[in-house]
């Protein structure tokens, strides 16, 4: 996926030329943006291999709230309504984190590794939240192509290159369209985020985290996933809280 993004972004960055603002602080923001994104994806993929999409994505979507909090700490304003929405999201995360009560409860196939999946998803959210903030700060100083390129370069050098050298970089034919679509979607999504963050980091980060709503619907339609009642209520609470936060910050 990172190689696909690299193929797209490298020519765009080259066309822009080396930006004048590429100095110490810009490098730091690029490292945070790219490194946080790559690390977050790796942790999120581990969580998705072990747990349900319907549980993992809403927890990961708190990345927007985390980025919003970082932005507020750094100086952006936050209304009392937005603070209440963040509190509601926290409650939702706690409910979604509760271990299924009975082995015959829907979704109990993930009973044993439930806490591990939740911890991984929240760790990914923290990494993504820091990455989103770093991306927005870098985008304020550099062209978007260079900002989006950072994660593709880090991912290609840290992950793809070692796999290639060790002969372990294999791509099954059925996975090709999925990998290409993921790579293109990442690039387009980050270009859009960079554009929106010029107006407000907090609002853009929270609105961008609405991907979880589509993910949960997709997991139900495509995979037939089910969660226990408490976990489902917690997931729905997170989605509602993130939606309310986007309205409050707007």
SSE sequence, one letter per element = HHHHHHHHHHH
Instruction: Assign the structural class, choosing from mainly alpha, mainly beta, alpha/beta, alpha+beta, or little secondary structure.
Output: mainly alpha
Average pLDDT rating = 83
Please report the distance between the alpha carbons of the first and last residues.
33 Å
Sheet of most strands: none
Number of helices: 11
Give the overall silhouette.
globular
- How large is the radius of gyration? 18 Å
Segments where pLDDT lies below 50 for 5+ residues?
103-110
Number of domains: 1
Helix content: over 70%
Short descriptors:
single chain; 250 residues; mainly alpha; 0% strand
Question: Secondary structure elements and their pairing?
Answer:
Blueprint: H1 2-16, H2 24-50, H3 53-60, H4 63-73, H5 80-96, H6 114-139, H7 144-165, H8 176-197, H9 201-208, H10 211-223, H11 229-249
Helix pairs in contact: 1-7, 1-8, 2-6, 2-7, 3-6, 3-10, 3-11, 4-6, 4-9, 5-11, 7-8, 9-11
């Amino acid at each position: 996926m990172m190689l696909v993004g690299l193929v797209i972004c490298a020519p765009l960055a080259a066309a822009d030329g080396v930006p004048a603002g590429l100095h110490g602080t810009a490098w730091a923001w690029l490292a945070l943006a790219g490194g946080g994104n790559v690390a977050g994806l790796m942790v999120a993929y581990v969580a998705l291999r072990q747990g349900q999409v319907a549980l993992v994505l809403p927890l990961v979507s708190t990345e927007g709230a985390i980025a919003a909090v970082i932005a507020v700490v750094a100086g952006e304003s936050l209304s009392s309504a937005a603070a209440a929405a963040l509190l509601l999201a926290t409650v939702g995360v706690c409910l979604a984190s509760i271990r299924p009560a009975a082995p015959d409860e829907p979704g109990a196939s993930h009973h044993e590794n439930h806490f591990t999946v939740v911890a991984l998803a929240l760790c990914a959210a923290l990494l993504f939240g820091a990455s989103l903030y770093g991306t927005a700060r870098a985008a304020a100083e550099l062209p978007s192509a260079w900002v989006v390129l950072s994660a593709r370069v880090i991912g290609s050098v840290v992950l793809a290159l070692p796999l290639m050298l060790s002969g372990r970089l294999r791509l099954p034919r059925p996975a090709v369209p999925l990998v290409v679509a993921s790579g293109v979607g990442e690039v387009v999504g980050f270009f859009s985020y960079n554009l929106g963050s010029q107006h407000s980091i907090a609002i853009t980060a929270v609105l961008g985290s609405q991907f979880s709503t589509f993910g949960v619907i997709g997991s139900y339609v495509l995979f037939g996933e089910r969660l226990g009642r408490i976990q489902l209520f917690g997931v729905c609470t997170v989605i509602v809280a993130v939606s309310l936060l986007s309205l409050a910050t707007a």
